[in-house]
Specification:
Blueprint (H helix, E strand, L loop, with lengths): L2 E3 L2 E6 L1 H7 L8 E3 L7 H6 L5 H13 L5 H11 L6 E5 L2 E5 L9 H19 L3 E6 L4 H9 L5 E8 L5 H8 L5 E6 L3 H13 L1 H7 L1 E3 L5 H4 L1 H13 L5 E7 L4 H11 L4 E8 L4 H8 L23 H7 L4 H7 E5 L2 H15 L5 H13 L5 E7 L7 H8 L7 H7 L6 E3 L3 H8 L2
The structure holds pyridoxal-5'-phosphate (PLP).
């Protein structure tokens, strides 16, 4: 499989080049020249396949010769070593729990796959790489965890000061070793803009061999398609129409779902569920894409005003607005509605949603309206990651999973830097 840049469709890159570069040299996003179609046999076998089996089968055609079959098999086995269950919350409504990985958010799926691909490439070449990543809360820790202790790889995380939850911050700042956390005096979009500038900076790139780990990296996007197949296989109800609601920020997760659909997965349509940062729901309504500055909410991992995967969605639909709105419906909800949903579902069913999952749930409820329909919402983080909010809403203590509890007692270590590219550059050249 070859990849082109969304800014220049003539040039060709291998999977390896696309993964190592992250962003194309002309600042476009890498995109596969064709989307492989999965045959009937694959779909027949799905209910009996594990997440790693699915990952291996789907990834093969995307990876091509850059990773041998047996290394790829190891990568998928090792990356997807936690459960991803589909849980019934109420009649016809299912939660796809993507939060059982080491950092308790769905980003573990993409980050673990990508980090293993990158270490395979770094081993092949013997070159040291530096991963630069902006995070609105969960990406940083998932990526860092994927690389913790990996020789030849340094990870530098930029996160917005005072705009991530306490647990998220502890996760980001207590790993040590080859992981460094930079606390930026700005919001997530500022962090993302600084990272983009760093990639465009020749001097930095030559010196540090920079690689991006944001959801723009194709090796994070690709595995985010696997669990849609896995969920469909677990439901195993071919006679029903399946609708999936995705709580979205940078739209990497939704892009993964759309990719799965285009490979042949019979999902009827997706719901792009958002908080007040509703640039995409607004686009779906009006056809106009108008990025804005982001606003802080209780679903902070979705506080994105200029979603970096928007171009990829357009690419998937060949820039055709009419086709986009056939497959994607928009929905957005306020913090107040989100909290009410957390409480309501808990009181009726005992199921505890995190604020992001709650937005996914609300999006689903807005659209599920037919007989013979099943809805899945993606539960993108463990509720304990947003403990303060969730406990306040429920008036109850919630259980903290072991993997989260451990970082709480460790000492925070971060470098505060100004919201300014030269501050980042100074730090990197220190
Ligand atoms: C990152 C994140 C999202 C948003 O995912 P995108 O792929 O950026 O749209 C939603 N929920 C949680 C908990 C996240 O960490």
């Amino acid at each position: 499989m070859k990849y082109y840049s969304t800014n220049n469709k003539e040039l060709r890159y291998s999977f390896k080049e696309a993964v190592l570069k992250g962003l194309a040299p002309d600042n476009g996003l890498f995109f596969p020249v064709s989307i492989p179609q999965l045959g009937n046999d694959f779909f027949k076998c799905l209910p009996n396949m594990s997440m790693s089996d699915i990952g291996y089968e789907v990834a093969r055609s995307f990876v091509g010769e850059d990773i041998s079959d047996y290394v790829l098999e190891d990568i998928t086995k090792d990356a997807f070593n936690f459960k991803i269950p589909v849980v019934e919350v109420e009649k016809e409504v299912y939660s796809l729990e993507l939060f059982h990985g080491p950092t308790c958010a769905f980003k573990d799926v993409g980050a673990r796959f990508m980090s293993r691909c990158l270490s395979a490439f770094s081993k092949q070449s013997g070159q040291k790489i530096t991963i630069l990543v902006a995070t609105s809360g969960d990406t940083g820790s998932a990526v860092a965890n994927g690389f913790l202790g990996v020789d030849g790889v340094d990870v530098i995380i930029l996160y917005p000061k005072d705009k991530v939850s306490k647990i998220q911050e502890q996760q980001l700042t207590t790993m040590g070793g080859n992981i460094t956390a930079l606390e930026v005096d700005g919001n997530f979009d500022d962090c993302q803009a600084m990272v983009k500038k760093a990639f465009a900076d020749k001097e930095l790139n030559t010196k540090l061999n920079l690689t991006s780990a944001n959801s723009i990296n194709i090796a994070r996007l690709l595995p985010q398609s696997f669990y849609y197949f896995y969920a469909w296989g677990q439901l195993n109800s071919i006679d029903k129409e399946v609708v999936v609601s995705v709580p979205s920020g940078n739209y990497g997760n939704l892009s993964g779902g759309l990719l799965a659909k285009q490979m042949g997965l019979p999902i009827s349509y997706f719901i792009a569920s958002s908080n007040i940062n509703k640039v995409i729901p607004d686009y779906l309504k009006s056809g106009k894409y108008e990025p804005k500055s982001s606003i802080s909410t209780i679903s902070n991992a979705m506080d994105v005003g200029a979603p970096s995967n928007f171009d990829r969605i357009l690419q998937l639909y060949k820039q055709n607005y009419g086709s986009v709105i056939q497959d994607i419906k928009g929905a957005w909800f306020s913090d107040k509605e989100t909290k009410l949903a957390v409480l309501d579902v808990y009181e009726r069913t005992g199921y505890i949603m995190d604020p992001h999952g709650a937005i996914g749930y609300l999006g689903l409820k807005k659209y599920l309206n037919k007989e013979n329909q099943l809805g899945i919402f993606l539960e993108t983080a463990h509720p304990a990651k947003f403990k303060d909010t969730v406990e306040k809403v429920l008036g109850n203590k919630i259980v903290i999973p072991n993997q989260l509890g451990k970082c709480l007692s460790k000492e925070k270590k971060s470098w505060i830097i100004e919201n300014d590219f030269s501050a980042l550059k100074n730090y990197l050249f220190r």
